[in-house]
Design brief:
The chain is an alpha+beta fold and about 625 residues long. It contains ten helices and 29 strands. It has an eleven-stranded mixed β-sheet with strand order 1-2-3-5-4-6-7-10-11-14-16, sandwiched between helices. Strands 17, 18, 19, 23, 26, 28 and 29 form a seven-stranded antiparallel β-sheet that branches. It has a four-stranded antiparallel β-sheet with strand order 22-27-24-25, with no helix packed on it.
C-alpha cells in the first residue's frame, strides 16, 4: 500500500511517498513488516538515488514521535526504512529480548542492499533499544552498513545496563510488563489478557519482591515471562550473556570499519556503555569515531533539554534539534556537506557540569550550570587519579589514615532497603490503569499512561513522597543507620572530576552473600534559596559479593572475614565548586534501581527467604578504603 504526503509548510525540497507494511523475510522464514519513506518529486514519483537511513524499533513504527522524525529525514533527502522488531506490533514471530536483533538486523540490511532501487549508502539511527538493534546488527559485519548514530545504547548487557556487577537492574523486568501491555501484536494476547497486563501495578510487585513465576499477568504472555526470568536468573557471565545481541563488546572486532557517532548523557542509563563502545571501537578501527556526552537523562528528546531531574544546566546544555544533529552527521558523510553548528573537530565532546551559582530557577530546580569542552582521549590526558580515603568522623580525606583499627558495622535489612533517589536509570516505569469498559486499553495513548516509578537525574538526597520507597518523616538518606556518609572539608577551590570512577573498599559480613553500594554526591552549602543546602547524586555503583572476584564463578563469603572489593561507578564530569564538599554514601542497597540481596546465598531471583546482615566497612592504615576520583587540573 502506498501513502502519499505533501508537507509544504516547511518549504521542503522533497515530497514523501510511503510504502507501508512491506514483508521482509528473515533467514528462518519470519516476516518483519517494514515501512519505506521515499523522497518524491512534485508528482510523488520516488527518487531512488539518495542515501538510506534505517531504524528497527520495538515501539511501533507508526507511532507519531517516530513517524514525525522519519518524515523530517525524508523531506531532507533520505530514504527512511522503519521496521517493527520481531514479535512487536505488525511483525511476525515472538520477541526475545535483544538476542534476536543481530541476525534480524543483518538480514534487513542485506534485503535493502539487494533491492532494485538501492543506490546506497546506508546509515542507522535510534535510541535505547533501537541503539541496541544497530550495534547488534554491526556484530555481524554487514556488507551494506556505512555509518551509525548510536544514541544511548549498550555495550555489554551483563556488566552494566541489564545486569550490573552481579545484580539485576529491575528496569528491564518493568520493561517486560509495560512493553507486553502496550504491544498490540495480534498474536500476542487476547482482550482479557490485554486488560490484565495494562491494569497490573508493577509498583505493587516491587513492594512484594521477588517476582514469582506463573503468579503475575506476565505469565499470560509466556514468551515475555520466559526471557524476563532468563535475564533475572542467569546470573553468571556465560554463553547466554555472550550472545551478540547482549555482548556487543565481545564482537567489536567484527564491526565494520565505518564512521560512528555515540551519544550519551551523564544521567543516562547507558553512560558507561557509551564510553566503553567509543573507547573499544576507537582502539580497533581507523574510521572517524566520535562521542558526545551531555548532562542528559535517557531518551530521544532528552538531548534537546537543559535539565536532568532537579538540576538545571542552562540553555547551552541542549544539543539543539536532535534531528538536525543527525542530518549534520549524515549530510557530512553521505552528501559531503558540512554543518558546523552540530559537528565538532575532536573525537570527544563533553558537557562539564557544575559552573552555576546554585540559585533556584523559576521551575524550582537548582542552577548547576556547566559548559561544553572537546577532548582527544578518554580518560582525559593528564588525568590525576586521586585517592580520597574514608576516615573516622565521617571524613573523606586526601591522606591515608594513620589509625590502626577503625570500622563501622551497620545492619542491612532487605525488608527495608535504601530507596533510590535519582540515578542513571530509564524504563523503570508503570502504567496508569484503564477502564475495562473501553473497547481496548489502547484507546488511551500510551504516552498518557506510562509514568516513571523512579525518576532519572540528579536530586537532593532527601526523602520525599514523590520518590518510591521513601517513608515518613522523610528525612535525609544520610540519616538512615544503614547509610554511611563520608565527606571532605569545605573545598578551598573548584575541583573538577571528569572520567571513570572506582572505589576500593575493605568489607566483611556475617552472611554468605550481601551487596555493597556507593554513591558520589556534590554537597552545596546552605543558601537563601536552599537554606538546608542541596546534596545531589552524581553517579553510583555496587557489587554483589558472590561475584566480587569473577562474574563467571560464585564465591560465597566467610563470616566476618575481611575482603578487598572494587566497585565501578558510572563515569561523570562535574566541577565541585569552592565552598562545596565531595561526599560518598555507602550502604548495601539502592532499591529499586537494583534488586536487593536477600543475604541468604540462594539462587538470585529465586530466593524464598531473606535475612538481616551485619555488614562492616573498614578504614584504617591497614585497610585503606578509598574512592579514586579523576581530577582534572588545568
Amino acid at each position: 500500500m502506498f501513502l502519499l504526503l505533501s508537507i509544504n509548510q516547511y518549504m521542503e525540497t522533497y515530497n514523501i511517498t510511503i510504502n507501508k507494511n512491506i514483508k521482509i523475510k528473515m533467514r528462518d522464514g519470519i516476516n518483519l513488516l517494514t515501512d519505506i519513506y521515499f523522497p518524491s518529486d512534485k508528482n510523488h514519483k520516488p527518487i531512488y538515488d539518495l542515501p538510506i537511513l534505517l531504524e528497527r524499533t520495538p515501539y511501533d513504527k507508526k507511532a507519531l514521535n517516530l513517524t514525525q522524525r522519519y518524515s523530517y529525514f525524508c523531506e531532507n533527502g533520505y530514504i527512511v526504512v522503519s521496521q517493527d522488531c520481531r514479535g512487536c506490533y505488525a511483525s511476525e514471530g515472538e520477541l526475545y529480548f535483544l538476542t534476536q536483533e543481530a541476525e534480524d538486523g543483518a538480514d534487513t540490511l542485506d534485503w535493502i542492499g539487494m533491492q532494485d532501487w538501492f543506490k546506497g549508502p546506508i546509515g542507522t539511527f535510534g535510541t535505547s533499544y533501537q541503539a541496541w538493534t544497530q550495534s547488534a546488527a554491526a556484530t555481524q559485519n554487514p556488507k551494506f552498513l556505512d555509518s551509525m548514530i548510536v544514541n544511548m545504547g549498550g555495550s555489554n548487557a551483563y556488566t552494566s545496563t541489564v545486569r550490573q556487577s552481579g545484580a539485576m537492574e529491575l528496569r528491564f523486568i518493568a520493561w517486560a510488563f509495560w512493553h507486553s501491555a502496550l504491544n498490540t501484536n495480534k498474536n500476542l494476547k487476547n482482550l482479557d489478557t490485554d486488560f490484565a497486563l495494562n491494569n497490573y501495578s508493577f509498583e505493587n510487585l516491587l513492594k512484594n519482591w521477588p517476582i514469582k513465576k506463573g503468579l503475575t499477568p506476565l505469565s499470560l504472555v509466556p514468551s515475555y515471562e520466559k526471557w524476563a526470568f532468563d535475564i533475572l536468573t542467569n546470573t553468571k557471565y556465560d554463553d547466554y550473556w555472550k550472545q551478540p545481541g547482549f555482548a556487543i563488546d565481545e564482537y567489536w572486532d567484527q564491526h565494520p570499519d565505518i564512521p560512528m557517532m555515540y551519544v550519551g548523557g551523564w544521567y543516562d542509563s547507558y553512560t558507561r556503555a557509551t564510553l566503553e563502545n567509543y573507547v573499544g571501537l576507537s582502539n580497533l578501527k581507523k574510521s572517524d569515531i566520535k562521542v558526545i556526552i551531555g548532562p542528559w537523562t535517557h531518551g530521544t528528546s532528552q538531548p534537546e533539554l537543559s535539565y536532568s531531574g532537579d538540576l538545571e544546566f542552562g540553555e547551552e546544555a541542549s544539543i539543539g534539534s536532535f534531528s538536525d544533529f543527525h542530518l549534520a552527521w549524515y549530510d557530512n558523510w553521505f552528501k559531503n556537506k558540512t554543518q558546523n553548528d552540530y559537528l565538532f573537530e575532536n573525537p570527544i565532546k563533553l558537557f562539564v557540569m557544575g559552573s552555576g551559582d546554585g540559585h533556584k530557577t523559576k521551575d524550582g530546580r537548582i542552577f548547576h550550570g556547566g559548559y561544553w569542552r572537546e577532548e582527544s582521549s578518554w580518560p582525559i590526558q593528564d588525568t590525576n587519579f586521586k585517592k580520597y580515603y574514608l576516615e573516622s568522623g565521617n571524613f573523606l580525606s586526601e591522606s591515608k589514615s594513620k589509625s590502626k583499627n577503625y570500622s563501622i558495622t551497620y545492619t542491612y535489612d532487605p525488608a527495608n532497603p535504601v530507596p533510590t533517589i535519582g540515578a542513571n536509570i530509564s524504563s523503570l516505569s508503570g502504567l496508569r490503569p484503564v477502564d475495562t469498559k473501553l473497547k481496548s486499553p489502547h484507546d488511551i495513548p500510551a504516552a498518557a499512561r506510562r509514568y516513571n516509578i523512579v525518576e532519572p537525574g540528579g536530586f537532593n538526597q532527601i526523602q520525599e513522597k514523590r520518590f518510591f520507597g521513601t517513608k515518613e518523616p522523610y528525612n535525609n538518606l544520610s540519616e538512615r543507620l544503614d547509610v554511611l556518609t563520608f565527606q571532605t572539608d569545605t573545598l578551598l577551590k573548584d575541583t573538577e572530576v571528569t572520567g571513570p570512577i572506582e572505589a576500593k573498599l575493605f568489607v566483611s559480613s556475617d552472611c554468605l552473600d550481601t551487596d555493597f553500594t556507593i554513591k558520589l554526591i556534590d554537597v552545596y552549602p546552605a543558601s537563601k534559596d536552599f537554606p538546608e543546602g542541596f546534596s545531589f547524586n552524581l553517579t553510583d555503583g555496587m557489587i554483589r559479593m558472590r561475584y566480587r572476584n569473577s562474574f563467571t564463578k560464585e564465591e560465597f563469603m566467610e563470616k566476618d572475614k575481611i575482603y578487598e572489593i572494587s566497585i565501578i561507578l558510572y563515569p561523570t564530569s562535574n566541577i565541585f565548586k569552592k565552598d562545596h564538599k565531595i561526599r560518598v554514601d555507602i550502604s548495601s542497597s539502592n532499591y529499586p534501581r537494583f534488586d536487593y540481596n536477600p543475604n541468604t546465598g540462594e539462587p538470585i531471583g529465586l530466593n524464598t527467604t531473606q535475612t538481616v546482615a551485619k555488614n562492616t566497612i573498614y578504614f584504617s592504615h591497614d585497610y585503606p578504603s578509598n574512592i579514586i576520583l579523576p581530577i582534572i587540573e588545568r
